[in-house]
Here is the input.
Amino acid sequence: MTRFNAWNVLKNGFINQTGWQRQWRDPVLKKEYDVVIVGAGLHGLATAYYLAKNHKINNIAVLEKGWLGGGNAGRNTTIVRSNYMMPGNHEFYEHSLKLWENLSHELNYNVMFSQRAHVNLFHSPAARDSNARRYNTMLLHNTDAEFWNLKKLKKTIPHLNYGPNARFPIMGAAVQKRAGTARHDAVAWGYARAADSLGVDIIQNCEVNGFVRRANNIDIIETSRGQIKAKKVGFAVAGNTSRLWQMAGLDSLPIESHKLQAFVTEPLKPILDQVVVFGVGGAHFYISQSDKGGLVFGGDLDWYKSYAQRGNLPIVQDVAEAALSILPCLGRVRLLRHWSGIMDMTMDGSFFICKTPIDNLYLNAGWNYGGFKTTPASGWHFADLIANNRPNKIINNHDLKRFEKGVNIDERGAGPDPKLHG
Ligand SMILES: Cc1cc2nc3c(=O)[nH]c(=O)nc-3n(C[C@H](O)[C@H](O)[C@H](O)COP(=O)(O)OP(=O)(O)OC[C@H]3O[C@@H](n4cnc5c(N)ncnc54)[C@H](O)[C@@H]3O)c2cc1C
Here is the structure.
């Protein structure tokens, strides 16, 4: 694969850009692999890359029913942060952020990671106190965290609604400056290209339809391109996890699939340099400006279970209300597109990277709203689990048995109702 560097860019300028190769191959599906990962979203692709790179396993296939990056990978609002507090979560998300900081170099692909600060507004003394607890815990773990008072906030983001009659009066903000955004497609393409160059077969338009089990193993994977075998199988299918779970003959998975919508406006001149977020009462809102100028934003789940990937008008109204309450200057901006993805919401809002009741099957799921930011660490730890057949210390409690063990990793304190863990 031709590397991206100054010399190759210069050289191709002289030869009419004819020196570049395909970014990844279109290989023929083999009959047998050491590892098969189902799902070529961010997590599946990252897992394949780290399996090949860190664990030198090269006989890997990633099977994708559509095109790579066409699921939540290409539908999210691209926020990356590590402001988590619970044991296990904190280390995991910070590991992820550190991997993000070198990801473009690691993959030799510009993922457009922009550390522009994540500004979490608060509107009441209670919200201030709970943010103080979280951000102080981050400081104790050497993660960057700061509090901005109103004076600093007004100076940095002057066009928020600070008016005396604001629907949600702003008191200040908890800020993580190393947080920011990245280009989601580029992350999928970067991992795909890097995994492919290490020999991973990425098979698009190849749907997994069923499994044949022998003893306590998956013996055969049935796909729309025929049957194949694998020594180990990993699920990384996000909102489709319960479907695959059923195909494998398993039951009772503590995950519900819910819809989450996102929105983008017409391109504007630079207006917002940070990611701004707030959540109060029934309103939840997050916004940033993309490099093309569009404002990218979203709010809450639709709050009913669904596998649909389409937006709808009630949520447009809900999110527009939240937008205008905090940024009234957007009143005349036109909405360009909106869409939906399927969230794999868990009972405590935390993820699963774990073994399953089937010996050679491994699970990567339960990313809720937050699986974009975890892409590098998720791939890294899932690859580590599959290669070594044991969880490492950080993900030790991120398994399906944690509820039995009484270990809830409930970051929001929202209780066992998946739709509340936004
Ligand atoms: C609107 C929205 C906003 C979001 N905002 C953020 C954010 O700001 N920050 C953040 O951190 N996270 C965010 N997320 C969450 C994040 O996008 C997801 O958690 C993450 O992308 C899920 O992992 P994935 O990329 O591997 O999933 P996906 O991209 O959904 O990958 C799963 C793949 O599996 C494939 N598949 C399913 N079934 C089969 C089958 N039977 N056979 C073969 N292939 C199959 C699917 O086609 C899909 O490509 C957001 C999500 C949405 C929808």
In short: The chain has a mean pLDDT of 96. The chain is about 30% helix and 25% strand. The first strand starts at residue 32 and ends at 38.
